[in-house]
From TrEMBL:
InterPro entries: GT-D (IPR014869). Residues 53-263 form the Glycosyltransferase GT-D fold domain. This is Glycosyltransferase GT-D fold domain-containing protein. Pfam families: GT-D.
């Protein structure tokens, strides 16, 4: 661990010096909540304007600093794309950039009390390099919140779009398929959508999906027939890059992150009952 820290310090000496000064309270990095949309405003902006959304978290910051994370190894190309997403973002971008801003507006002492300094002080330092006070940012936790309160994203969000989409494409790993099936089946049965909306599912690797970036893009181009129909991506940092590239090409992409995973964990009993019922049919 000490060796890893020393290597990181040599690579980013200014970052770690800044980290020490912020952590100690000598200086702080201030953000104002006026620059950030809340959960409802974020969803409204994305749906009404058909803007894509890209959400950044602590994992993306770790990759920008050259570290691996649990399901994605660092590569210079991945870090390059993540940096471009931050650097190029403004109010005219085809995507809303979602940021975990509630932690960013906290001072160092509050983060210490919450035991969140390890995650969010690095985020504050890196994000401050790209932050534009004249630009509005979204809320990164929007889909996690929807999962927590049991909102079916198909029924409550996508079916309220006008005109209603005739296809939806999911880009995620195999472990989310059961949850996707449950959410889509309950919605399509309720509104008799089987003949009206096509659901596409593109399976991606659970780990190091970035290695398959260009193959995934090719498959989306092959399957997804209309760029104004929504593409839901749950692919970690690779999802950010996919959303960035595809939104630039005119596609409407929602980087939903761990929505399906969070829904499965929080509503496990409901999913178990559904699975047992489907097996008995």
């Amino acid at each position: 661990m000490k060796l890893k820290f020393m290597k990181a310090f040599v690579k980013h000496p200014l970052f770690y010096l800044k980290y020490a000064t912020v952590l100690s309270g000598v200086v702080d990095i201030d953000f104002h909540s006026d620059n950030f949309l809340n959960l409802v405003e974020t969803i409204s902006t994305v749906v009404k304007n058909r803007k894509s959304i890209i959400r950044f978290g602590d994992g993306e910051i770790s990759l920008l600093l050259g570290f691996d994370i649990r399901f994605q190894e660092y590569t210079p190309e991945l870090a390059y794309y993540l940096k471009r997403i931050l650097k190029e973002y403004n109010d005219k971008s085809p995507y809303v950039l979602g940021i975990p801003w509630r932690y960013l507006v906290m001072d160092s002492e509050t983060l210490k009390k919450w035991k969140k300094t390890h995650f969010w002080i690095p985020f504050k330092i890196v994000f401050s390099r790209y932050f534009d006070p004249n630009t509005i940012y979204g809320d990164a936790f929007v889909f996690r919140h929807l999962a927590r309160i049991g909102v079916n994203i198909f029924e409550k969000i996508l079916l309220r779009i006008r005109p209603c989409p005739d296809e939806i494409t999911i880009v995620a790993n195999e472990y989310t398929r059961h949850t996707v099936t449950y959410l889509w089946k309950t919605t399509s049965d309720k509104y008799n959508l089987t003949k009206d909306i096509t659901l596409n599912y593109i399976n991606i690797p659970k780990r190091n999906a970035f290695l398959e970036l260009h193959n995934i893009i090719d498959r989306i181009h092959e399957i997804h027939t209309h760029c104004k129909n929504p593409i839901l991506i749950s692919a970690g940092p690779t999802g950010k890059v996919l959303s960035y590239i595809l939104s630039d090409r005119g596609y409407w992409v929602l980087d939903i992150g761990h929505y399906f995973d969070s829904f499965r964990v929080i509503h496990l009993e409901t999913l178990k009952k559904y699975h047992m019922k489907s097996l008995s049919v």
